[in-house]
Amino acid sequence: MLKQPLARSLQALSRPHPLQGLTRPFFCRSHALSPYLTPGCPPLLLISLQSFQPHTRSFTTHPSRSSASATVAAPKPSYSDDPQHLTDLLAVDDLPIISLDGNQVAIGWDPQTWSRFHNIWLRDHCRCPKCFHPVTKQRLFNTFDIPKDLTPLHAEATPLGLEVTWPSKEPHVSLYPWSWLHHNSYDPSLKKHQSSSDDIGRHRKILWGSKIQQSPPIIAYEDVMAPDNRGLYKWLSNVYEFGFCFVSGVPATPEATEQLALRIGFIRETQYGKFWDFTSDLAKGDTAYTTLALGAHTDNTYFTDPCGLQLFHLLSHTEGTGGETLLVDGFYAASIMKELHPEAYDLLSRVPVPAHAAGEPSELYTPYPQSGYPVLRHDSTTGELIQVRWNNDDRSVMNHLTPELVEKWYDAIRLWNECLTSADSEYWVQLRPGTAVLVDNHRVLHGRSAFNGKRRMCGAYIGVDEYRSKLAVLSEQFSPDAIVKATNDIPDTHVNGRNIWNSAL
Prior knowledge:
Helix content: 10-25%
Protein name: trimethyllysine dioxygenase
GO molecular function: iron ion binding; trimethyllysine dioxygenase activity
Oligomer: single chain
Low-confidence stretches: 1-92, 193-197
Function: Converts trimethyllysine (TML) into hydroxytrimethyllysine (HTML).
Strand content: 15-25%
Cofactor: Fe(2+); L-ascorbate
Radius of gyration: 26 Å
Region (Disordered): 57-80
Distance between the termini: 31 Å
């Protein structure tokens, strides 16, 4: 008989989403977001945030009854091509139904929900020690040795997962955990029952406006630097969810700030050096090295791969005033654009924008290709917004626009600028020595007001891959995903500190 977690999982997956049909104000209250959102702002935020659903436990089975099996002679069931919801019709003492159907293995999660997996796909994803190196987590089996007409000798539903016997000189048996199959179902996709493909651990992106000033994310320096890594995990989790996070109690020295950056990963060296420690002396040919005001922007639009994170720490500001820091959630501004100006949003998602960094005689940076990249970048599979890339000051000549697009594009960036500069979007904060801020450069735009006097700033760039790797490793430790939890008891699954069924693999 299946253990109770399966029944609870199926019930949770079959229920309507708890946010369906709710009004936007209720949604904000439900997720404690009301302090961050301006009343009466566009309803798109509800649409945008509904994709960041509360964590739902993945499908896992641990039955003790005799398992179901299928052979080549099994009859062909009838399947729906439409994704189906898991329902409570699956009795708790039943295993998924298995059927061999031509070049596919079909799995019936319940009477209404089926997944189909091609034989070649299943064989290619065998993770036995002969096919998948358990230590290096690299494929050993030669994909190109798989016959196009491969057919299993036998397929069986077992308590641990789908067990498939393949034809070979020596019988080869592959095991695929149920939770892993459900997560990776592609015919049909069942991802509507799961978290976003870009989520790490249980984190969800939270959009915010100017009211985040009432309760911004912050963590203590001593917690981030603690050897148990819990504070570091919380810090990076905040950055993932909000796009930025303050660190309080940082010693006002370059050395302490650099060590803070190194807690995440190695520092990315650019034309500005490795670790910055600068004033408004134009030591580099960039307006950041002046006293001028800087509008909301992301850095490195002139790079093919802009940096992922930026760490800023104001070490001192004497004999003057001004220099407030500006933060704008680019995803929030984009959500407003998409709701109110969908055609303009589409242009910002399609039209590439060239950029350059040319203030140093020895350097001339442009992205590759030189035509640049759109302001708004989306996941090609899910359509989810994953990057904002905007710095009007570094923009190059827009000579690739067709005549009919010129005025439309300028209208679009005018609307975009209105979204970025609205009082609802802008979060202004006066940084003080001892408080650093870490910013997601792929999401949150930053700027500053003009200032006078002597102002000393330090900080660093960190690559997006180094940041995501560190957060993923910490998530494994403090918030493992449902697949890792469900497969931990399978023999030879945890090798060299990592589960071979980790969803990132």
